[in-house]
Amino acid sequence: MFKRRQFLNGAGVSGALGALFAMNKSAAQNSVAAAGSAGGESVLLPSRARGKTPYRRVRVPGVKTLPFTMKNGVKEFHLVAEPVKREFAPGMTVNGWGYNGSTPGPTIEAVEGDRVRILVSNRLPEKTSIHWHGLFLPNGMDGVAGLTQPHIPPGKTFAYEFTLVQNGTFMYHSHSDEMLQMALGMMGFFIVHPKDPDFRPVDRDYAFMLMSWDIDPGTYTPNPATMTNFNTWSMNSLVFPAIPPMVARIGERVRIRVANLSMTNHPMHLHGHRFFVTGTDGGWIAESAQWPEVSTDVPVGAIRVIEFDAALPGDWAFHCHKSHHTMGPMNHEIANMLGVQQKDLMPKIEKLLPDYMLMPMGSEGMGDMTEMAEMGMKRPENTLPMMTGNGPFGAIEMGGMFTMVKIREDLRPDDETDPGWYRHPRGSVAYPVA
Questions:
Q1: Residue 198 clears pLDDT 80, i.e. is over it
Q2: What is the Cα–Cα distance from 172 to 167, expressed in whole angstroms?
Q3: Which of 81, 179, 209, 224 has a CA positioned 20 to 30 A from the CA of residue 132?
Q4: How many CB atoms lie within 10 A of CB 200?
């Protein structure tokens, strides 16, 4: 049994909703897709130009969009809180809690001014609730169990209903037994598109939810009591190399929404381009207040929205700049073997453990971990290598929070198909001189 905390802190919505609506009248957002392809079958996204939707849907790689039905002018969504199994990458499946069979839960998308009703059914073994992070709504709909509403008991369904008086990038997450339920993955995106579909238009729109996990090697269930010593770092509950790449055509405007519900900050870095921070979960940033960056820090419990023009072709990395966050599971308590010569010990150890595969590790660095994994070095069950992934020039030696933006000159508009590895023009790749 894990000791639970009661959360009695919550902020009231100050001012009338009408005033808040006026304050946020010039905030907005566009979006780009629901389900992506890591290669193979072509995926074409809904386009305003084709008249299929009044907005572009946001692509949250590896996460579906939540459908809705119209009932007397109200958009009705249905979330089911339940235990889920999530494959972080081939070879590692995690026992989590989430919504509608997934962590993160499906993305909710609606339009500023919509009246929405969200039914939340509890199929967990304990009570729960949902907080609508960043949204302006009546206090009784804020979702802080025990403070603004009763807990949702197992087997029961509650309805949240409110009008969307702002637009932007928001989240939903549990606010009941929060330490345990969020640690197991109970979170998702809530995207509110602007009334004006031509406000700050973009050609590609992506979103990533950052999360930290403590999953002991050989096990399947995260430890929700962990506070600092995490060993797995994910984007949309996926880790490299399973995170699908973003794609863009030269000249397109690209938006990336990054939400952080992990237990630490993440400086997210884009290679090859500069970007501008254009929004947060508090709203859009005026153009006069934006500044150029190549890395931006995403604090805990916050969202940063960045935008850039795809100017240079290539496969450009996008990742957290904390180096341990771009690695797979590791033990933080092993001895530092850097510079220690181990080869003389191997014959003696082999006599003691003749059936065990032994390799001297760490004396000259850890860059050979990928090769060792490919050679069949045994790992605990359900555990990924510390470094993995192969590219066109060999081992990429990454993991965790690492993906890329693949920019090409010949992509069709709205085509999200992975174009494969970039073919560098002759003479444009670093080469040996000594």
A1: yes
A2: 15
A3: 224
A4: 19
The DSSP secondary-structure symbol of 172 reads: E
Residue 132, token pair as written in the block:
């609508």
Q: Which is nearest to 126 in space by CA: 185, 81, 79, 95?
A: 81
pTM higher than 0.70 for the full model?
yes
Confidence of residue 369 (pLDDT cuts 50, 70, 90): low
Q: How many whole angstroms separate alpha carbon 380 and alpha carbon 231?
A: 14
* 17-323 topology per CATH: Immunoglobulin-like (2.60.40)
Contacts 24+ apart (CB under 8 A), 376-379: 379/217
Helix (H, G, I), strand (E, B) or coil at 31: coil
Q: What is the pLDDT of residues 216-275, one digit of tens each?
A: 999 999 999 999 889 999 999 999 999 999 999 999 999 999 999 999 999 999 999 999
* Cα angle: 402, vertex 296, 88; to 5 degrees: 25
Calculate the dihedral angle through the C-alpha atoms of 21, 24, 27, 32, rounding to the nearest 10 degrees: -40
How far is Cα 124 from Cα 16, in angstroms, rounded to an integer?
35
DSSP string, 296-360: EEE-TTEEEEEEEE--S-EEEEEEESSGGGGS----TTS---TT---GGGHHHHHHH-TTS----
pLDDT at position 374: 60
Contacts of 80 (CB under 8 A, 6+ apart): 99, 100, 101, 120, 121, 123
74 touches 49 (CB < 8 A): no
Task: Count other C-beta atoms under 10 Å from residue 344's C-beta.
Answer: 8
Q: Are 255 and 205 in contact (CB under 8 A)?
A: yes
Q: How far is CA 183 from CA 35, 180, 242, in A?
A: 25, 5, 21
Q: Where in the chain is the domain with CATH 2.60.40.420?
A: 17-323
